[in-house]
Amino acid sequence: MSAVLRVALVAGEASGDILGAGLMQALKLRHPQVEFIGVGGPRMQAQGLEPIFPMERLSVMGLVEVLGRLPELLSRRRDLTKTLIAAKPDVFIGIDAPDFNLGLELKLRQAGIKTVHYVSPSVWAWRQKRVLKIRDACDLMLTLFPFEAQFYDEHQVPVRFVGHPLADEIPLQADRHGAREALGLAHDAPVIALMPGSRGGEVGRLGALFLDAAERLRALRPGIQFVLPCASRERREQLEAMLADRDLALTLLDGRSHEALAACDAVLIASGTATLEALLYKRPMVVAYRVAPLTYSILKRLVKSPYISLPNLLAKRLLVPEMIQDAATAEALAQTVSPLLDGGEVQTEGFDQIHRSLRCDASKQAADAVLELVGRA
């Protein structure tokens, strides 16, 4: 193939940057003459993306929290729409960030550009009428999970379940001993990973709570060790301030979340992508989450799903405990995590089944689907 394939992509946060980089690598293997433009993080830039503006400008969460950034986000989307229409890519791929990307995809599709959305929004759980906008905006939806593809089939949206790249990357059985050696953790004491999130707002709401729970766990389990991977230098500084005047056997890590999960016996974790990683490492977990009170009040009325965490959504049952908003107290978290150190087999057996179902060579599947859409298969 001699014709250059021009691909535009937009990712809004670290998880999208990982997915985008894998997809870009797979596209290059199948169509070496390819150019990438758009918005992405360091992983996507390492694969050859020419960034139009920094990905961090799109990283915002919550209903109330986004309001302060709304004028900037709308302005950036207008400018990006004009830039991409002028660039005339063969295909645009919006990676997650649905509130930003779906509006962009609609304008680009109306301008004659093929559009793909990679990672389904939680349309099956709340704001289900968004499926009508998705049908108008996307030539193809790529889903990471099978229950999502079923939803889109039922609503006549072209869809392909590709599996999850993390399920391909993470081994079916992790090396706990090797991970503890690498992190300098003792082999003869239990280890709990604390994962309060990657964003400043998440750590602000959950960081001190998780540390309070850790202090109670230490009282229940003398000799216990804690490991806490920090998503960035800013998160590390934020957590170091919270650790002042606390006496915990806790190791802060710069990144290395996968090693922390491999090394630990159980996880106290914020709801989000990291719960899938904990599932794939077969580590029993307790999921906690807090958002701004007004955001929670709105979501409670809108969300139709009985669960918020990916492990439970994938299992279609309450496989892991979920402790949300006021229910997420330090004492409750400690009392729920502690028994997992003695068991957790029900969780881990369910995790193994889910892992195998998601192991589909996702980046290759996604690249093949994109190339088929643009007639370059």
From TrEMBL:
Enzyme class: transferase
Record GO biological process: lipid A biosynthetic process
Keyword Methyltransferase: no
GO cellular component, one term: membrane
GO molecular function terms listed in the Swiss-Prot or TrEMBL record: lipid-A-disaccharide synthase activity; phospholipid binding
EC number, as in UniProt: 2.4.1.182
Pathway(s) it belongs to: Bacterial outer membrane biogenesis; LPS lipid A biosynthesis
UniProt keyword Lipid biosynthesis, yes or no: yes
Keywords linked to the UniProt accession: Glycosyltransferase, Lipid A biosynthesis, Lipid biosynthesis, Lipid metabolism, Transferase
Catalytic activity line of the entry: a lipid X + a UDP-2-N,3-O-bis[(3R)-3-hydroxyacyl]-alpha-D-glucosamine = a lipid A disaccharide + UDP + H(+)
Record function comment: Condensation of UDP-2,3-diacylglucosamine and 2,3-diacylglucosamine-1-phosphate to form lipid A disaccharide, a precursor of lipid A, a phosphorylated glycolipid that anchors the lipopolysaccharide to the outer membrane of the cell.
Listed PANTHER family: LIPID-A-DISACCHARIDE SYNTHASE, LIPID-A-DISACCHARIDE SYNTHASE, MITOCHONDRIAL-RELATED
Family per record: Belongs to the LpxB family.
Name under which the protein is recorded: Lipid-A-disaccharide synthase
Protein's organism: Pseudomonas marincola
